[in-house]
Amino acid sequence: MHKDQIISQLIQEKIITISPDKPFTYASGMLSPIYTDLRLTVSYPELRDMIASDLANLIAEEFPEATIIGGVATAGIPHAAWVADKLHLPMIYVRPKPKDHGKGRQIEGRFSKDDKIVLIDDLITTGGSVLNAVKATEKDGGNVIGVSSIFTYYLPDAKENFAKSGVKYAPLLSYPELLKRENESGHISSKQYNVLKTWHEDPWAWGKKFEK
């Protein structure tokens, strides 16, 4: 596994940006001292290959019965393609909603009710989008046995959502791992570490102090 190398490059290339004093706003409205733009990983051949290799190994270990790799649009699609290639498995991908033309498909690619599908997304914040993709796939007759991602924040909302869904989740990298590594490396101050740790424990409460 290349976890340390991957995390180092994510920080070095500012794919993961830490800004405790000027928080970022997520699509959910949540404020955060960290922003992760894993879409940028496609521009770095060595990095994306390490990610694909590690995800392939992880999926082979956690979901050995998998027969199809699925990508969650849009950011999960390229990584699913590279992982499917390494595992020599078929691939599908899931749109956020059905097309409004043609056959109106939401799932692209072929699968049967006997297939065992693992969906890949780039990042899990609350888990909402990838769990919607699970529902859409199952509505079309697919059997999703698990979800994987490059990175997860492991926020309370995500833990609750995955627990409710009953879907097994196996991420490659997690926020606690990132935080531990950055603290040990001296890349962040003790003050920044405390801010990042406090946010992770209760992100919605942490963001309230920035409200006007």
From TrEMBL:
<dbReference type="GO" id="GO:0000287">
    <property type="term" value="F:magnesium ion binding"/>
</dbReference>
<feature type="binding site">
    <location>
        <position position="125"/>
    </location>
    <ligand>
        <name>orotate</name>
    </ligand>
</feature>
<feature type="binding site">
    <location>
        <position position="99"/>
    </location>
    <ligand>
        <name>5-phospho-alpha-D-ribose 1-diphosphate</name>
    </ligand>
</feature>
<dbReference type="InterPro" id="IPR029057">
    <property type="entry name" value="PRTase-like"/>
</dbReference>
<keyword id="KW-0808">Transferase</keyword>
<keyword id="KW-0665">Pyrimidine biosynthesis</keyword>
<dbReference type="GO" id="GO:0044205">
    <property type="term" value="P:'de novo' UMP biosynthetic process"/>
</dbReference>
<feature type="binding site">
    <location>
        <position position="95"/>
    </location>
    <ligand>
        <name>5-phospho-alpha-D-ribose 1-diphosphate</name>
    </ligand>
</feature>
<dbReference type="GO" id="GO:0004588">
    <property type="term" value="F:orotate phosphoribosyltransferase activity"/>
</dbReference>
<comment type="subunit">
    <text>Homodimer.</text>
</comment>
<keyword id="KW-0460">Magnesium</keyword>
<keyword id="KW-0328">Glycosyltransferase</keyword>
<dbReference type="InterPro" id="IPR000836">
    <property type="entry name" value="PRTase_dom"/>
</dbReference>
<comment type="function">
    <text>Catalyzes the transfer of a ribosyl phosphate group from 5-phosphoribose 1-diphosphate to orotate, leading to the formation of orotidine monophosphate (OMP).</text>
</comment>
<dbReference type="Pfam" id="PF00156">
    <property type="entry name" value="Pribosyltran"/>
</dbReference>
<dbReference type="InterPro" id="IPR023031">
    <property type="entry name" value="OPRT"/>
</dbReference>
<protein>
    <recommendedName>
        <fullName>Orotate phosphoribosyltransferase</fullName>
        <ecNumber>2.4.2.10</ecNumber>
    </recommendedName>
</protein>
<dbReference type="InterPro" id="IPR004467">
    <property type="entry name" value="Or_phspho_trans_dom"/>
</dbReference>
<comment type="pathway">
    <text>Pyrimidine metabolism; UMP biosynthesis via de novo pathway; UMP from orotate: step 1/2.</text>
</comment>
<feature type="domain" description="Phosphoribosyltransferase">
    <location>
        <begin position="64"/>
        <end position="147"/>
    </location>
</feature>
<dbReference type="GO" id="GO:0019856">
    <property type="term" value="P:pyrimidine nucleobase biosynthetic process"/>
</dbReference>
<comment type="similarity">
    <text>Belongs to the purine/pyrimidine phosphoribosyltransferase family. PyrE subfamily.</text>
</comment>
<feature type="binding site">
    <location>
        <position position="101"/>
    </location>
    <ligand>
        <name>5-phospho-alpha-D-ribose 1-diphosphate</name>
    </ligand>
</feature>
<feature type="binding site" description="in other chain">
    <location>
        <begin position="121"/>
        <end position="129"/>
    </location>
    <ligand>
        <name>5-phospho-alpha-D-ribose 1-diphosphate</name>
    </ligand>
</feature>
